[in-house]
Amino acid sequence: MTVGENARDQGYVLGHSDRELERLEQQATFFGDMTRDVLVRAGLAPGMQVLDLGCGVGDVSMIAADLVGADGAVTGIDISPDALAIAERRAKASGRAAGFRHSSIDAFDGFDGYDAIVGRFIMVHLPKARETLGRVVAGAKPGTIVAFAELDLSTVSATGETPLLNRCVQWIAEVYRRAGLDPNPGTGLFATFRAVGLKPQMYGMTRIGDGGDVPGFVFLAESVRSMLPMIEKLGIASAAEIEVDTLLTRLLAEANAADPCVFYPRFIGAWARVE
Among 275, 221, 264, 261, which Cα is nearest to 244's? Predict the structure, then answer.
């Protein structure tokens, strides 16, 4: 989920703290199955060479490595040395054929060496997503699979009375808006692909939980924690208003009272082959 240097220059809204790296690992629990589904639909297969853009702690790289098997290989790139160190350890411990390089997307050269180029939650952090994807496509060889997955943050909803949950989602989405980024990049994938000459196929899914889905509330609270510096900097809410150290407890109490059905952000995958 970390991205190129241009995004860091703009201010990577989730930061790069140790706690944020832990939150990134938690994403595997939430979005792993859906990510695998998109990559399978896109056509990843044994023996392929895959490039994972903005690989972070390696969740997508691990899934891709499982799909391409021992005869294939995955290369992940990211700008965070700490995230890459975690990804390296995870790949080594699991025996997966995945390696990692410190590089931004803009500085990377060699897109033509891969059969598939993939990324998850990357477009949301790119102020010029079409330009970046255009450079990737221009450097790729014909037939290369290009597959990305993004969320639509504004699609989160819950039954029952959940004002605190709703405020958390609003704080997060507003950070992206005020930073000049699109909080609903999943919806925008079609236009982004078409703008660079690709003809995407698309697929959408939604994770659904209930008031007892503790990992979901942990993930939400930790996302707000990671964004807190930007939330304050952009004047969206104050630390005193958010009370991040008690946020999870209050979210769980609200869920216990409301017994909600929680619809998490819509997860959208898009893929195409370079012509």
Answer: 221
**Of residues 60, 57, 61, the one with CA closest to residue 73:** 61
Q: How is residue 194 written in tokens? A: 């078409």
80-135 residue pLDDT tens: 999 999 999 999 999 999 999 999 999 999 999 999 999 999 998 888 999 999 99
Look at the chain and count its residues: 275
Cα three-residue angle 235-240-246, rounded to 5 degrees:
125
Does pTM top 0.85 for this prediction?
Answer: yes
List pLDDT tens digits, range 15-70. Answer: 445 566 565 566 667 899 999 999 999 999 999 999 999 999 999 999 999 999 99
Neighbours of 15 (CB within 10 A): 17
Instruction: Count CB atoms within 10 A of the CB of residue 223.
Output: 20
Q: How far apart are CA 226 and CA 222, in angstroms?
A: 6
